[in-house]
């Protein structure tokens, strides 16, 4: 990845963390890595654990930030969440998957949107699969 791409991604994650904290969520972890799997942000929203995918796009990029949440990415997020819950022994806790989409122009955040429940754990690729946690 180019340095510019990483810089834009960091801007988006910083903005997403600030937005979520302003909304009352507590950021527990940033860039939680489990092997080749990664969670951008892990937050606490009252009694709910929130796995947040941050999608940042610079002006002129093709597609919207939300377009990056492909079926393959959803499946990877699900596996990363499973790894997190196992590692931290938190299977008992209610969870959800949120998306924060960020548009950046000349290192300035132009638009940021937080979408709660952006995906379902039992439908990571748009089809019903066996549920791995009863949310």
Automatic annotation (TrEMBL):
One of its GO terms (molecular function) is endonuclease activity. This is UPF0102 protein SAMN04488503_1647. InterPro entries: Restrct_endonuc-II-like (IPR011335), tRNA_endonuc-like_dom_sf (IPR011856), UPF0102_YraN-like (IPR003509). The lineage of its organism: Bacteria, Pseudomonadati, Thermodesulfobacteriota, Desulfovibrionia, Desulfovibrionales. Keywords: Endonuclease, Hydrolase, Nuclease. Belongs to the UPF0102 family. It comes from the Bacteria. Pfam families: UPF0102. It comes from Humidesulfovibrio mexicanus. HAMAP family: UPF0102.
């Amino acid at each position: 990845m180019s340095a510019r791409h990483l810089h834009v991604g960091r801007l988006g994650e910083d903005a997403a963390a600030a937005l979520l904290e302003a909304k009352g969520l507590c950021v527990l972890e940033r860039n939680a890595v489990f092997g080749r799997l990664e969670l951008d942000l892990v937050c606490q929203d009252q009694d709910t654990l929130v796995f947040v995918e941050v999608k940042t796009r610079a002006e002129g990029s093709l597609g919207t930030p939300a377009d990056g949440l492909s079926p393959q990415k959803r499946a990877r997020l699900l596996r990363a969440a499973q790894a997190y819950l196992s590692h931290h022994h938190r299977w008992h806790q209610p969870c959800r998957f949120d998306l924060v989409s960020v548009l950046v122009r000349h290192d300035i955040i132009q638009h940021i949107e937080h979408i709660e429940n952006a995906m379902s754990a039992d439908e990571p690729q748009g089809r019903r699969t066996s549920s791995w946690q009863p949310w």
